[in-house]
Amino acid sequence: MRYSYYPGCTLKNKAQALDAYARASARALGFELEEIEEWQCCGGVYPLGSDEIATKLASVRALNTAKEKGQDLVTVCSACHHVLKRVNDDMRNVEEIRTKANNYMDLPRPYAGETRVLHFLEVLRDQIGFDKVKEKVVNPLTGKKIGAYYGCLLLRPGKILAFDDPENPKIMEDFIRAIGAQPVIYPYRNECCGGYISLKEQEMAGEMCRKIGASAEGFGADMLITACPLCMYNLNKNLEGGLPVYYFTELLAEALGVKDEVKVK
What we know:
single chain, four-stranded parallel beta sheet
């Protein structure tokens, strides 16, 4: 299987290892991530203005590139996934946005939301299957008690993202079981970490992170995993000396026995 791949800015700069772990894990599981050409930053935040077209165009370009290749578009970053999927929904369902974007870009063929956008975790769950992932594990994380931190962007708005139950998700817990560890369910796993206010309101963001860490630790977790680079950075910064926070692709690569193959400049 081959997928168009949108790595996003963070995984191509400050978090190159997370990208490399994803690619190595994909190969170990029998599929390929084919990075699309000349992708641009998605903006990191979905533009809420209904008349805002310019900041949607990078996403439309990536979505159309995947369409022309006849492939689904996969990303590893929850922020990129969020923006791409919501823009795709606009292009499928909002005539004014679709018309303006297509007129501006002058594509050979109009784009109307045909591409399917998948988070890497959705590929594992729906395309590969967590049972198959478990079969490929050579280094199970036995004894690890891991709290899944979902945050905001993977789950909401639920009807558009259609990723999992926004109030009681289980995809990351199923992932944790597949790599041989024990998932820990705790109350703050869906709460915001304050990542988008971490520069302006450092104290508030810090307190939000500490509540998440205390909640997970109180229910027995010895580490957290997340699927958002900004969440990982913000949590690690504010939980220093507390629970360690890992990206899910790193633990997947470790469980599949390919982590040591990853070379990052």
